[in-house]
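Ticket closed. Logging final result for THAP-type domain-containing protein.
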Amino acid sequence: MESRNCRKCEICGERKLPKSGLFLAKFPLDPDRCRLWVKATGNEDLVNVPIEKLHQLKYACGAHFVNEYFNAKGNRLVDTAVPTECLAKPPLSDDLLAEFPLHVKSYYDKKSAKKRTSE
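Final structure:
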């Protein structure tokens, strides 16, 4: 049985055990960027997963990002980061991603709430 604390990279399958130094980034909530991440995984099963679930449960490890995508400390990705390095499978076709993303309503609700509070 797999531990709840054990997360894995959706691209290469590398696992992060508690207290290991592996960098894992959550899939983004931004629909356009998340689409690029799903495309990079080469995993067709992720196409039909709601975007909120991708963000909550799926990760990509640092090995798939160029150094320019990390902040100065190397512990966070910049907002434009997309996995492009060491991809295990060929990227998914745009045809497969035609209906992606699913369930983005909450993303836009959060964004509009942020705008309202900043005005």
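Helices lie at 31-41, 51-57, 105-118. No further action required.
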